[in-house]
Structure formats: C-alpha cells, structure tokens
Design a protein that fits this description.
The protein is an alpha/beta fold. The protein is about 55% helix and about 15% strand. It starts with a strand and ends with a helix.
C-alpha cells in the first residue's frame, strides 16, 4: 500500500508517517500544499492520498478534484478538523473516498486508508451521522421509476447496505452471498448511477429515500 501525505503542518505529517509505517504502509512522499500534492500524485501515483482540507494556496478539495483527473486510480481520503456541511459535501463531490476528522480516533486512520484502497469509503462517525440526518430531514425526490428500473432488486438491497456504511464482507454476510458477488454488484451500481465511488452512491441513496 503506497500512501502520500498532504498537510501543511510538518510535525503532524511526521506523526502520520510514523503511524502508517508502523502498520506496514509505505509513505511515498509528503506535501505541504495543494499544488505540491498534485505534483506528488502525478509523480508517484500512490494508491491513496491522505489530504488536509485547508492549506496555503489551492484547497484540499481543489487538489482532490485535479488529482482525480490526473491519476484516476488514486483514492483520496480527507483528514481535517472541519465538520462543516459545505466542506463535507464539496469533498465528496470532488471525489474523496473518505472523510475523517483529526480529533477522531487515531485508530480510524489506517482502516480509512485501507477502505479507500479497496474502493470502499469510511466516514468519521460524527460526519456519517450528520450526513444521514441532514439528508433524511431534507426534501429530496423519490427514486425515479426510470432509475429504479435500471437497478435490480438485489442491487437496491446492496445500495441500502452501502448507505448504512457496510463493507463488502458485511453486505455479503447479510445477503448470504460471496464478497466477490457483492463487489460485482457494487461495480454495476456505480456504473448505473454514474458516480465515482461508494460514498457518492450512498449520498445518492439517502437523497432518494432508499434508506
């Protein structure tokens, strides 16, 4: 697992490097700004970039958006102090595969990176709760008949469990099938909904009252 670290605080980056290397992950580079992050990602093509949100120059969201264009196979996980609704929404729409808070449990960082590398997503519990609550409270349209017709009944079941934060292995156990089958369903769902990752699919499901 090859990881790049992006944060404008050098001591914080060094602490992250020690944590990740202690868990067997390879840190292929560090950056202190969004501009540096874009160059680093293009040069190293890491599996995952751990990205701060607020930095000098371009923001972590802007850097995330550009990295997704330049190196589409690289996953990005936001690690920030901000739980602001607008920041979370912008990061998800930019293509982030996870959103973790710096004041959250330190033992959530490595699982968040591993989940992103698998094409899954991990949110800080506080962010997940806020996201679901906001969207359930909002006025959102029901899933259109046209879109619903594109998803099989099993795919809708899988989507509901994805939106509940379940990983492939947990979904497989709940539906009495194999993780490989679930992986195939997830790929089909992302393609049909025209979204980039599980997190965006989960947002889609909540907005349309599937969960």
């Amino acid at each position: 697992m090859r990881v790049a670290l992006v944060d404008d605080h050098e001591l914080f980056r060094h602490g992250l490097r020690d944590l990740l290397e202690a868990h067997g992950l390879e840190v292929v580079g560090e950056a202190s700004s969004g501009e540096e992050a874009i160059g680093l990602a293009a040069e190293q093509i890491p599996d995952v970039v751990l990205m701060d949100l607020s930095m000098p120059g371009i923001s972590g969201v802007e850097a995330t958006r550009q990295i997704r264009v330049d190196t589409p196979h690289t996953r990005l996980v936001m690690l920030t102090v901000s739980a602001d609704e607008e920041d979370v929404n912008e990061a998800i729409l930019a293509g982030a595969s996870g959103y973790l808070l710096k004041d959250g449990p330190i033992d959530a960082i490595v699982p968040g990176i591993m989940a992103a590398a698998r094409g899954e997503a991990l949110l800080s519990p506080a962010i997940a709760a806020q996201l679901l609550e906001r969207m359930r409270a909002g006025e959102a349209p029901s899933l259109s008949p046209e879109t619903r017709a594109h998803l099989t009944d099993r795919e809708v079941e899988v989507l509901r469990l994805m939106a509940a934060g379940k990983e492939n292995s947990e979904i497989a156990a709940a539906l009495c099938t194999s993780p490989q089958t679930i992986k195939s369903h997830v790929s089909n769902i992302l393609a049909k909904l025209e979204v980039e990752n599980r997190l965006q699919a989960a947002v889609y499901a909540v907005q349309r009252r599937l969960v």
